[in-house]
Specification:
The protein has 961 residues and is of the alpha+beta class. It folds into 5 domains: 84 residues, Phosphorylase Kinase, domain 1 (2-Layer Sandwich); 176 residues, Transferase(Phosphotransferase) domain 1 (Transferase(Phosphotransferase), domain 1, Orthogonal Bundle); 162 residues, no CATH class; 210 residues, paralog of FGE (formylglycine-generating enzyme), CATH 3.90.1580; 243 residues, Alpha/Beta hydrolase fold, catalytic domain (Rossmann fold, 3-Layer(aba) Sandwich), CATH 3.40.50. 29% of the residues lie in helices and 20% in strands. It has a 9-stranded mixed sheet, with helices on both faces. It has a 6-stranded antiparallel sheet with strand order 1-2-3-4-6-5. A hairpin with an 8-residue loop joins strand 11 and strand 12. Helix 4 packs antiparallel against helix 9 and helix 10 packs antiparallel against helix 11. The longest helix has 33 residues. The radius of gyration is 30 Å and the shape is globular. The relative contact order is 0.06.
């Protein structure tokens, strides 16, 4: 079915044709519901007309859509139009297919190995879910602008031929199909391994191993050996030739057994070999052996020089590439690769300036201790089951370098139970991590110990709360299962008042035990969860979480088990909402609950399934009406519900409600404060009204100031490669203060430059110096030929004061700071108007996180901006004085505004913070856009660059070369 530009199908507006494949046409389209661009595949009409094929397609496509892996194309939705047309909405990637890349010639061996590793990882993730691809070829691999290989059309090849599941059928592209595919035999994951072997061969030498045309290639696949790679590519490492031949074994029993095994073998080939002569010690060693002969000296010296050349020409460039990939990837996998390469380079180069500058961009330093000490510490990227564990040493580790992303860590010690946890290498997280390795049997079966550390409450609406002091506690590894709850029912749990400790409050009255228990019946009127029958759980569901219970039932079960419901503080610490972008995609948000521990979603200290499956009742009351918190989201929630501070009526027995228990130490001194009532400061912004124009005009006059001389000085100039960095000082608009600004003038483009003015994230409040903000912080903007300016706002960087948070409050102190920020922004533009290199008529506001939230105020105050870009923005629930209340300003923001957000944002939830702010903006609908991407408080780097540069081109105009 051919679609036309601007045509609308369901909620997709066609923007243009991307290409075509064996399974249909592909179009670039706008999902008007979520305001994001997608790749929309229109499938052949014959498929829709064949009921058997259609059913098989839907089954396969749903299985493929469940895949969550950075190397596999994300399937957003499977749709059917009213006339039966089948559509698949997929992620749209900025890049080119591998087929297009190979048209320009062979790929260097190291780069080819990197791409093959990523494809192998994607295949391994799919194979683990029982899904085969069957048509791996260059046209089905896209290489993004950031260098990542992503597999397209997963699962679709299986239904390209309607009878593929039967022996005797073939599918796939002839040149890449395995011998068993060519014979029409049943295939398994080793067939995908063969196809990847063909792909690797082609990438390395630029030619396919079986170059025949039409059916002649089948004979080559079945009978011929491919020409040796060594004859086509000089200097190729022998191990590559051996591995490719193992992939192309015609007998699949002799082939590399799995994609996971292939990924490990490829990484081993890619791993630079350690050098025995290290750095500066090489010269000393050479002098020692000089007395034994000049030849030995020269040998050692040359080896040292070769090692240094290897470090500078290979290790450091690849380290930089991985650091760049890690900047917008909350997963720590690229960070750990950069970490390993940096260590290998350090062993050769010693204290090298390039390495010294790289370490702060790779991660931060932590202190790890354990009780007892001596535990072996291993780590890898969170959820990267195919990655090797990296040994970091034994505790205590005083200066452990950890990448910025999210990692899994494991501590083990002979005679003790091992501990699993999550590390987050962000510099503003706690620097000291403590673990307890208990003796076997010391902790009740099914529970894990949480070694308490400072950690903020990260549930939107409650994120203003201070972490309450508390002692180490135990938490259930899994949600309470049907089988466990059955023991409570069988023990007479619904008739024994000693388990029901909390008064039954309903409608302002206290109910008797008998009256209350009459509400807790199953589907057949027997005591038990609302989803059970005849007092028993559904057949075969013993390992599924119990669901359909009220808060009262959850609290009674906890009492029966000798435990209690977690407080929001305990639940938050174990759940780790900061990691939502990695945790949520693995959680069960599907068609129903699944067996506990089967989702692959792991939280702190080895607890699992806290994201999805069932909501988990917590102890704390959330409102005067008696609502109780039920956290984590359940199987029929949106995935971002994991972050929500949701509360429900304690009598609610929805099928989504379950529980998990904790054991607190008997002597917990802060028990009362931990268990106190905590109201959710929720705001329904749709029901609030901004002030009228006359009142707003009064508010706006607060930002007025006298246009006194700037007395500007360029304090420092520095060449940073792609731009010149200037430190400027000038008079502020208040208090006889001097303020600063960083100005970056690009080497690309031509003056006068379009200029992007940055309002930074809240890290600026907690950082004493702006020295760390350099050209690489805004590289894609500078490379586009635009200047970038960072005002040093009151309370940030070198101008830090008593301000310690970006959260609004109703104090005069906060109000005064907002007004000062507005004046700082305007004063900066006053300065830019004095610079001949700057086109002051083409300015853009760029707000990041805190600056994104301030994007609801600042562009209304400073109307000299031509357009706005708000990165991870939204309304906050905390109130401020009306004079600086964002809702009073947002409707007065008129400039074209682009808003880019993460689906699992732990600061700005989609429904209650992001959308209300976007809808409140006064910009005309045709000039504002809102995109939501999978991820937490970030968006993919390539999407940020592509969308932002396109927006600036549209509203500031293309850059003059």
């Amino acid at each position: 079915m051919k679609l036309e530009t601007s045509q609308v199908l369901l909620h997709y507006q066609i923007l243009g044709r991307v290409g075509a494949g064996g399974m249909g046409e592909v179009y670039r389209a706008l999902d008007t519901r979520l305001q994001r661009e997608v790749a929309l595949k229109s499938l052949p009409d014959e498929l829709a007309r064949n009921p058997e094929a259609k059913a098989r397609f839907l089954s396969e496509a749903r299985a493929a859509s469940a895949l969550e892996h950075p190397g596999v194309c994300t399937v957003h939705a499977i749709e059917e139009t009213p006339d039966g047309q089948l559509l698949i909405a997929m992620a749209l990637y900025d890049g080119e297919t591998l087929a297009a890349r190979l048209e320009r010639g062979r790929i260097p061996a190291d780069a080819a190995l990197d791409l093959a590793i990523q494809v192998a990882d994607g295949l391994a993730a799919a194979h683990a879910r029982g899904i085969l691809h069957r048509d791996i070829k260059p046209a089905n691999i896209v290489v993004t602008a950031g260098g990542r290989a992503v597999i397209l059309d997963f699962g679709l090849a299986k239904i390209a031929n309607f009878d593929l599941t039967q022996p005797g059928s073939t599918v796939g592209t002839l040149a890449y199909m395995s011998p068993e595919q060519a014979r029409g035999q049943k295939v398994d994951e080793r067939s995908d391994v063969w196809s990847l072997g063909v792909l690797l061969y082609e990438m390395i030498c630029g030619e396919r191993p079986f170059p025949g045309l039409d059916l002649s290639v089948v004979g080559q696949i079945l009978e011929d050996d491919p020409p040796p790679l060594a004859k086509k590519v000089a200097g190729l490492a022998p191990g590559i030739e051996v591995l490719v031949r193992r992939c192309l074994e015609k007998d699949r029993d002799r082939r590399v057994a799995s994609a996971a095994e292939l990924g490990r073998a490829l990484r081993e080939l890619r791993r630079p070999k350690a050098v025995t002569s290290r750095g500066r010690r090489a010269l000393t060693a050479a002098l020692v052996v000089l007395v034994l002969g000049l030849g030995a000296f020269l040998s050692v010296f040359l080896r040292a020089r070769a090692a240094e050349n290897h470090a500078r020409s290979e290790l450091l460039p690849e380290m930089e590439r991985q650091i760049e990939l890690a900047r917008y990837d909350i997963s720590a996998t690229p960070g750990w690769i950069a970490h390993r390469l940096a260590l290998e380079a350090e062993a050769i180069l010693g204290e090298d300036p390039a390495l010294a500058a790289a370490w702060p961009r790779i991660g931060s330093e932590l202190q790890l201790s354990s009780e007892p000490s001596g535990a072996l510490v291993r780590a890898r990227g969170y959820g990267d089951e195919n990655a090797e564990w990296i040994e970091l040493g034994r505790t205590p580790l005083e200066q452990l370098r950890v990448p910025f992303g999210i990692s899994s860590v494991e501590l083990s010690l002979a005679g003790r139970s091992s501990v699993r946890d999550i590390l987050w290498g962000q510099p503003y997280w706690t620097k000291k991590r403590r673990f307890v390795l208990d003796e076997p049997g010391a902790i009740p079966e099914g529970m894990v110990r949480v070694a308490v550390e400072p950690y903020p409450v990260q549930l939107p609406g409650l994120d203003h709360l201070e972490q309450e002091p508390m002692q180490d506690f135990l938490i259930d590894r899994f949600e309470v299962t049907n089988a466990q709850y059955q023991r409570f029912v069988d023990a007479g749990g619904y008739t024994r008042a000693e388990f029901w400790k909390v008064p039954f409050e309903k409608g302002g009255a206290t109910l008797s035990f008998e009256t209350a228990l009459a509400s807790f019946k199953d589907l057949t009127g027997q005591p038990g969860p609302a989803t059970w029958e005849v007092g028993r759980f559904p057949d075969g569901k013993q390992d599924h979480p119990v669901c359909g219970i009220s808060w009262y039932e959850a609290a009674a079960y906890a009492q029966f088990a000798g435990k209690q419901l977690p407080t929001i503080f305990h639940w938050n610490l174990a759940a780790f909402p900061f990691g939502s972008s990695e945790i949520c995609p693995r959680g069960n948000f599907g068609e129903g609950p699944v067996a506990v521990g089967s989702s692959g979603s792991e939280n702190r200290y080895g607890a699992q399934d806290m994201a999805g499956n069932v909501r988990e009742w917590c102890w704390n009351q959330a409102s005067r009406e008696g609502a109780r918190y039920t956290l984590g989201g359940g199987w029929n929630d949106h995935r971002y519900a994991f972050n929500d501070a949701y509360a429900a009526n304690p009598w609610d027995r929805s099928p989504i409600n379950g529980l998990r228990c904790v054991q607190l130490p008997a002597g917990e001194p802060n028990r009362e404060k931990l268990m106190r009532s905590i109201e959710v400061p929720f705001r329904d912004f749709s029901q609030e009204r901004p002030v009228d124009d006359a009142t707003f005009a009064v508010f706006l006059r607060q930002y007025a100031y006298d246009k006194t001389p700037l007395n500007a000085t360029i304090e420092k100039r520095e060449d940073q490669g792609i731009a010149e960095r200037q430190v400027i000082t000038f008079d502020a608009a208040y208090g006889q203060e001097r303020m600063r600004a960083l100005v970056f003038l690009p080497k690309a483009g031509k003056a006068p430059y379009q200029t992007v003015v940055v309002f930074p994230g809240s890290g600026a409040i907690h950082t004493s110096s702006s020295d760390g903000y350099n050209a690489s912080s805004a590289a894609f903007l500078l490379k586009s030929g635009r200047a970038v300016v960072l005002p040093i706002f009151k309370g940030t960087y070198e101008r830090r004061d008593e301000l310690d948070s970006d959260y609004p409050d109703e104090s005069a102190f906060y109000k005064d700071h907002v007004i000062q920020w507005g004046k700082d922004l305007s004063r900066t533009i006053d300065y830019l108007e004095t610079r001949a290199e700057v086109d002051s008529k083409r300015l853009a506001y760029y707000g990041l996180s805190w600056g994104g939230a301030m994007g609801s105020i600042m562009p209304a105050v400073e109307t000299r901006f031509a357009c706005n870009v708000l990165l991870v923005a939204g309304f906050l629930f905390q109130r401020s004085m009306p004079e600086v209340e964002p809702l009073n300003y947002a409707g007065r923001v008129r400039q074209p505004t682009l808003m880019l957000n993460g689906e699992f944002d732990f600061f700005f939830p989609v429904e209650t913070a992001q959308k209300p702010m976007f809808e409140a903006l006064g910009t005309a609908p045709e000039h504002k856009r809102y995109f939501v991407y999978p991820g937490a408080h970030t968006v993919p780097r390539t999407e940020l660059a592509a969308q932002m540069l396109g927006w600036l081109d549209k509203y500031l105009g293309p850059v003059v070369p």
